[in-house]
Amino acid sequence: MSRTHDEIETPPHKHHGVEELEDINILKPTPSHFEKLYLQPEQAVAGNLRLTFGNPTPIALGGFLLANTPATIMLMGWRGAGGGTGNASAGIGSYFYFAAILLYAGGIGEWILGNTFPAVVFFTFGGFWGTFGATLTPFYNAINGYGEDVAAFYNSFAFFLVFMAVLCLFYTIAALRTNICLVIILACFTVTFPCLSASYFYGAVGMATLSKSCRVVGAAFAFAASMVAWYLWFSMILEAVDFPISLPVGDLSKYIKGKSEKTKRDMV
What we know:
The chain has about 270 residues and is mainly alpha-helical. The protein has a domain at about 55-240. The chain is about 65% helix and about 0% strand. It has ten helices and no strands. The chain is globular. Mean pLDDT is about 85; it is low at about 1-10 and about 20-25. InterPro entries: AceTr, Gpr1/Fun34/SatP-like. It comes from Cryoendolithus antarcticus. This is Protein alcS. It is found in: Membrane. Its main location: membrane.
């Protein structure tokens, strides 16, 4: 017996759009939570890739930490690390296979998700660690290429560190829209790189004492950056497993409003 039009039930798939929208709203992080996970304020992007793929940020941070932390200890010379001369070549493997690779991987992941700022930071710092590792590797002939003129190498490499400092300064300014932890990390490196470049410049003219002092001070700031980064990384790991305790990272996005937010407010 045929059923009338009124008796026909609405197909279940008619409600799928509403249900999916509700699911997306449940999964969508708050502005402060988003900034904590991805190190940038949320911006509109097409699609739902952020709900599909994992968070690449702790991957990049993990690689950075396992290279930067021991490198700073070698530069400071703790317990004879670095031979007392700041020789950080013992960590060449970690510079390539932890820092460079994982920072590049994290940068690619952030780029795919539409997170421009962390992608740029991870790519450039991955490039730094790859450059640092290559400089210490004899195959690339970076140091031996100058022959016995070590001062020429020192003066040349120091300028690379000078412009890393400029890069970090710009990053620090941009990070004022993210969180306190990231600002501290980048501000520390804004001090680290000038100190390390000064160490090379002093070393080029034979001022060993000043060279060592600048190296140790620069490494100390980089070590401080590592300690804050460990805290930031751990806060992300807790979020990844939905741990009942959440560590604050000092959200700044609610204090420094974006240009788009101000424009919307002015249009109202």
